[in-house]
Amino acid sequence: MPRFLLIWLLYSITGSPSFAQPKTRQARLDSLLAELPRAKPDTNRVNLLMDISYAYYAYDNMNFNEGISYANLALTLARQLTWKIGMADAYYLLGNIYATKSDNPSALTAYLKGLKIAEEKKDKYLIASITGSIGLIYTRLANYPQALAYYKKALKGHQELGDKAAVAHWLSGIGGVYNQQGEYAKALDYQLKSLKLNETMGFRGASKESHLNSVGQAYLNVTDYPKALAYLQNGLKLSKANGTNYILVSSYKNLSKLYLKIAIDSNATPLTTLLKSSKFTALQKAKVYADSAVGLAKEQNDLYVLYTAYQTRSQIQEVLGEPVAAFASFKDFIKTKDMVISQQNTNQLAVATLQYEFDKKETAFKFEQQLTATQLQNQAQQRTYLLSGVGLLLVLLGFIVYGYTQKQKANTVLQRQKEEINQKSNQLEQSLAELKATQTQLIQKEKMASLGELTAGIAHEIQNPLNFVNNFSEVSAELVTELEEEQLKHDRDTELEAEILVDLKQNLQKINHHGGRASAIVRGMLEHARSSTGEKRFTDLNALADEYLKLAYHGLKAKDKEFNAELITDFLPDLSKLEVIPQEIGRVLLNLYNNAFYAVKEKQTKTPSDYQPTVTVSTTQRNGYTEIRVSDNGVGMPESVKAKIFQPFFTTKPTGEGTGLGLSLSYDIVTKGHGGSLTVESLEGESTAFVIQLPTLS
Which of 176, 374, 452, 561 sits a CA distance of 20 to 30 A from 441? Predict the structure, then answer.
């Protein structure tokens, strides 16, 4: 069994692996890639492809796309070789990559496919490992009863196998679930059991800092602040020393919670005896740790830690008397949490689970059919053997009578088995209907929860500009009254009147500005509502690309009248219409155009006056795909940026100019929504091209 399965098993349930130094990582990857051309298309090549996949996503700065690509190559080859265990291993690896990437639906789908094969092959180790990993997905989605059930199955499986390292891992996982459920005493008990078991093994293959952090968090929740501080600080030091950033980010998050709790605890003893500082100083430390957690979680694309860090930071800022900052952090918390626990995730998880249950029952059904056919064939062979050994007519006649009787019995058995199969088929259909009904209920429940969050978000978003409008309106009314009173005086102060008029003008400008903000919020909500109900229809992509190019260019010109760029279009005549959601593809194109204009504008500020900003859009059809290419002669990007360009929250723009979500959402729209691909080609300092490929209907 490939070694990466065991390695993954021993990592923190909320983290991502981080191993050797960069040079060692690259050397390992280069060695594997050099071996690939010499490898024969056999099971060894499957393992090599999985090793390369693992090296890319674990060693090479989380290069998820390459990791997924090589894991899929391994899966394809294992399928061609009909190597079931190799297929299960590849599915498990894919699940691990998607889980590290925080793509929970894809992770669960891969895990369940691997689990089905592992159950067929009765591979106890793989069954227990994948079962526990599924528990991780449900932990991240806050479905704690399901998570607990899967973790306990994994724990039992590895206990039976005598795998102490895995047992320690799942004990910690169960403790984490109890912590999330508020059963802090149980959580502490399981974390201490896990720590003790690892200590007896000398933390063989395990992360000591991970367990120190988990135990520290457990002590924090039972308000044993001295022990919590000791364990968390030790874990922090060890994480920094070993470079295990996936634990470091969790340590930052837990320490920020600890200092916040100590600061707001009604009992002042911890402040004076443990921290020996004031409430304000403790809150400042909490804020520093929270900011560190947010920054590192963004860098690692760890959405699970990120949204909880945002929540803690919002609470700290509120206690510090920073309402605007607290509200901004709270919005980030809601937005990021929705990316982790969303209606789409819930729907896709339910579909993945339905498919797994259906596949299992379908396999059992086919097995029974094969069993029935085999039994009948054996009976026919037995009759043939008996007939060939009979020589006398009387014996032959008796055998014929016997054969007829057996045939009648066989027909009776076959009829009964057919009835049983039909009954089981009906039960399967009934189970599927029940599962679909449950899925519908889950979707409705998630819709209502999302509606509540959306309503609260709308109220907060619109209330802010409206407060400004109301405040400036009241002040303006007072200024008008003051002006009227001054005009009635015999010795009018004209300078004062002029000052009042200037103030009135400024107030009206601010009212107009914040009114525009409110209008923009409403427009955005209406656009969101329209796009969410979009349906696929046959669309002229040439016209769509041209329309959004002009829209993006004129929108930029409205903000910066001095900006000019050459627009070049090279559209394939008679381009076949494609069945797409026009609003969503338009949103992707708008993102790509805006990025292109930003790139050429940046280069224009750094190059001689003879530079001509140029954005080119072309369409073509080849190899069963329709291709849209958006290229520019702007600043380009280095390889390090290209590797991360489609990751959520990654942006090269200055703070305030980009959210880091545009290309990530565009990638999901093209790949998941339309079954296509979105790639980037770039030469640093020279050019960039984004290429959309959409499957052409035959």
Answer: 176
Say if residue 180 is in the same domain as residue 254: yes
In one letter, which amino acid is 284? Answer: Q
**384 and 477 both lie in a single domain:** yes
Q: Is 355 inside a domain boundary?
A: no
- Decide if 602 contacts 635 (C-beta within 8 A): yes
> What pLDDT does 619 receive?
96
Give the residues across from 622 on adjacent strands. Answer: 625
Predicted confidence (pLDDT) per residue in 430-452, tens digit: 777 776 676 666 556 545 654 55
Residue 11 sits in a domain of what CATH number? 1.25.40.10
Secondary structure, 3-state, 421-477 = HHHHHHHHHHHHHHHHHHHHHHHHHHHHHHHHHHHHHHHHHHHHHHHHHHHHHHHHH
Using alpha carbons, list the distances in angstroms from residue 548 to 11, 369, 583, 595, 617.
Answer: 46, 57, 10, 13, 11
Enclosing domain of residue 602: 537-695
Closest CA to 494 of 508, 481, 483, 478: 483
Contact between 185 and 222 under an 8 Å Cβ cutoff? The reply is: yes
Residue 24's alpha-carbon distances to 30, 35, 56, 213, 476, in angstroms, are 10, 17, 13, 27, 67
What pLDDT, in 10s, does the model give residues 590-634?
999 999 999 999 898 887 778 899 999 999 998 888 999 999 999
pLDDT confidence of residue 105: 85
The Cα 166–Cα 126 span in angstroms is 12
